[in-house]
Amino acid sequence: MSRTPKLVALVAAAALGLTGCSSGSSDSGARNEGGVTTLELWTHNGGNPTELAVNKKVVDAFNASQSKYKVKLQSFPQTSYNDAVTAAAAAKKLPCVMDIDGPNVPNWAWAGYLQPLEMPDGFFDKQLPSTLGTVDGKVYSFGHYDVAMSLVARKSVLAQYGIRIPTLDQPWTGDEFDAAVAKIKVGGKFAFPLDMGTAGTGEWIPYAYSPLLQSFGGDLVNRETYQTATDVLNGPDALKWATWFRGLITKGYAQQKSGKDSTVDFVNGKSAIMWNGSWAADAVTKKFGADVVFLPPPDFGKGPKIGGASWQWGMSSSCAAKDGALEYLKFSAKPEYYVAYANALGLIPANTDAAAKVPNFAPGGKYRFFLDLSQKDSVVRPVTPAYPYISSTFQKAVSDILAGGDAQKILDKAAADIDNNIKSNGNYEF
Amino acid sequence: MYATATSQLVVRRVRARTARSRETLIGVAMASPAVVLLLVFFLVPVLLAFGLAFTNARLISPRPARFVGVDNFVTLFGDSLFWASLRNTAYFAVVVVPVQAGLALILALLVNAKVRGTNFFRTVYFAPVVTSMVVISLLWRFIYQPDGLLNHLLSAVSFGHWQGTDWLNNPDTAMPAIMVMSIWQAVGFHMIVWLAGLQTIPRDLYEAAALDGASGWKTFANITWPGLRATRTFILITITIAALSLFTQISVMTQGGPLDRTTTVVFMAVRTGYEQQSTGYAAAVSLVFFVLVLTVSGVQRFLTRDKD
C-alpha cells in the first residue's frame, strides 16, 4: 500500500519531465516580428577582436541598408566553434548564416547542414578558386580572404651565414634547407634555429604540415577516388616526410613542442626561421622592417606546396529566411568588404578586383608575395566529407611521429583508420 | 463501551494512516524535482547511450543509425588505443589512490594539531581544490615546459648538474607528471574529509592513551586508524572513481600523447565520439568503462563492508 503512491508519483514526475523535452521549433535561425525578419549569424571570431570588428561592420552596414531583414551576430571562440555548430545541428537549431572552415564544407554539405548558394551566374568570377567551397559542382560557401603559409627569416641572419635567399621561382631544395638550418645551429646564436609551430594543435596541424607531406609526394588521401589513404599516407614518400620531420627534432633544429606563440618568439629573436601564416606578417614587419623576408617553403621533390582555403560564409539548410540569408551574403560579397578584411587582417583578399585596391597586395605591394605564392603553390585540403576524420587521424599521427614513435607503423595505422572510416560511411556518397 | 473503544482505535489508526500517507506524499513531492532531473538528464541519456553502443550511430550523418550488434565491442577489444587507455587509467588509479589518500591523512593529522596557524594551512591546502582544473592544467603546463619553472628550480638546487627534462613530452615522465599535479590539486579536499573523521574520535580515548604512556605510533595504530574506518571507506571509493574518470588534465596538457602514454578511457571516448564523430563506438567505450567502474566499486565495497 505504501509503495503505490511513490510509484505513481515517480511515473508522473518522469512523464512531466519528458513532455518538456518534446517541444521545439522546427524553424531555425530566423524569427519574424512585425514585418522585420531577424536572422541569426554565427562566426568563429570570438576572442579575435580585429576580425570580429570587420564582421560587425558588414552586419551593421547591411542592417542599415534595408529594413526588411535584420542580422544578429553571435560569436564563438574558435576552438569550440565546430563543436557548437555540430551540437546545434543535432538540436536542429542552426543559425541562418554561418562561417565554416574551408575544409569542413564538404562534410557539412554531406551532413545536410548547408544548402547551395543560388547566386546569379558569374557572381563568383573574380573569386580566388581556393576560397570557394564547391562540392559536387555546387557552390556552398565563399571566403573573403585566404592565408598563405611561408618561411619567415631575416636577411641579416641569412647573410651572416652565407645562405642564399630563395625566390618564388627558385625555392630551396630539401637539402639546401637542411644545410642552411645546420649552419645556423652550428653558429650557436639560436638554441633552436627553426620554429615549425609544433605547439599548435587542432586544424593547424594538417594546414601547416600536410603541404610539406605533399611536397615530398605523399598526401592525406588518394585524390582521384577519395576512398583510400593507403599508399599515399603510408607510402615511401610519406615515410621520407615523417623521417625528415622527426629528424628536425633529433638534430636539435626545432623543438618537439615549440613556444606557445611562434610569432612572439621570432620577434624576440628566439628563432632564426619560422614557418607561419601570413597573419603574422604585420607583427614581424613592425619589429624588423625591411630586414624581414618571406620565403617559399622548400621543394622536397614535388614542388613547394602551401595550404589554402580559410574561413568561408555559407547558409544553413534549415534556414527559415532563405531570401534574407542570400541577400546578406550577396551584400557581404561587395569588393569593399574584401578590402576591409584584407586591410584589417593583412590577409590575401580573395577577390581580384579587391586585390587591386589593397596597396599591400597590389603588384609591387609589401605582401604581394603571399598572393603570388598562394596562386602558384597552394593546394587545398582534400575536398571530401571524410575530412574531419582525416584531420583528426593526421593530427594524432603527427603528434606521435614528433614524439619519436615508429613512423611506418604510425602511418600504416593512420591510413588503415581512414580507410575503415570511409568504408563504414558508405564511401561518403551524396 | 467496547464498541467506542474499538471505533476510537480504528479512528486513531485511520488518522495515523492518513497522516502517514500525507507525509509520504509531501516527501515524494519534495524529492520529485531532484528525481525528475536525475531521471531526465542522467538516467535516460545513460540508457540511450548504452543503446547507442549497439549501433553504428554517427554524430553527423545523413544516414540513420543501424543496429550492428556487438561489432563495436569486437573492434574495441582489438583496438590497441583502448588497451593503452585502460592501462594508463589503471596505472593512474593504482598510484594516485594510496598516495593521495595517504598524503591527505598526513596533512589532516598535521592540521588537526592544536597549534596556531592551522586555519591558514587548511585554506592553503584547500585552495587548489576550488580552482578550475583547466586553469591548473594550463599553469602546470607552463611549469613543466623544458624552460619552465620546474627545470629552473632543479637546475638551481643541483647547482647546474641536472637540467630536468621535457616532462610532458617524455613518454616515461608524462603520466607521473600528471599524477603529481592531480594529487596536489585534490589532496586538500580529502584532507578535509579525513579531518572530519578525525574529529569524530572521542578526545578521552587519546587522553587515556597518553595516561597509559602510549607512543605516537601506537596511538595512531590502535585509536586513530580504527576510528577512521567509515571515513576510510568513503575516501577509498571517491578517490578511485575520480581517478578512473581522468580527462581534463589529459585534454589540456598532453592530448593523449606522447605515443599514447597518457590517453585514458574517458579521453578516448570523448575523442572518438566528438572529434571523430563515431558516437556508436564512443558509446561502446563508455559502456565498457561503466561496467569496469561498477566492478571495481563493487569489489571495494565488498572488501570494506561491515563484518558484523
Q: How many beta-strand runs of chain B? A: 0
* Percent of residues in beta strands of chain A: 15-25%
Report the strand count of chain A: 16
Overall tally of structural domains of chain B = 2
State the low-pLDDT regions of chain B, or none.
none
Helix content of chain B: over 70%
The CATH architecture designation of the largest domain in chain B is: Orthogonal Bundle
Number of helices of chain B: 13
Strand % of chain B is under 5%
- The N- and C-terminal alpha carbons of chain A lie at a distance of 59 Å
Detail the poorly predicted runs of chain A: 22-26
Largest interface: A-B, 40 and 38 residues
Share of residues in helices of chain A: 40-55%
What's the CATH topology label of the largest domain in chain B? MetI-like fold
Distance, first to last CA of chain B: 50 Å
Q: Mean pLDDT of chain B, rounded to whole units?
A: 89
CATH class label of the largest domain in chain B: Mainly Alpha
Q: What is the gyration radius of chain A calculated from CA atoms?
A: 24 Å
Q: What can be said about the biggest beta sheet of chain B?
A: none
CATH H-level homologous superfamily name of the largest domain in chain B: MetI-like
Describe the structure.
The complex is a heterodimer of chains A (430) and B (308). Chain A has 16 helices and 16 strands. By secondary structure, chain A is an alpha/beta fold. In chain A, helix 2 links the parallel strand 2 and strand 3 (69-77). The model of chain A is unreliable at 22-26 (pLDDT under 50). Chain A is globular, with a radius of gyration of 24 Å. With 308 residues, chain B is mainly α. In chain B, helix 3 runs parallel beside helix 7 (174-198), helix 4 (118-126) crosses helix 7 and helix 12 runs antiparallel to helix 13. The longest helix of chain B is centred in the first third of the chain and has 51 residues, at 2-52. Chains A and B meet through helix 1, helix 3, helix 4 and helix 15 of A and helix 1 and helix 12 of B.
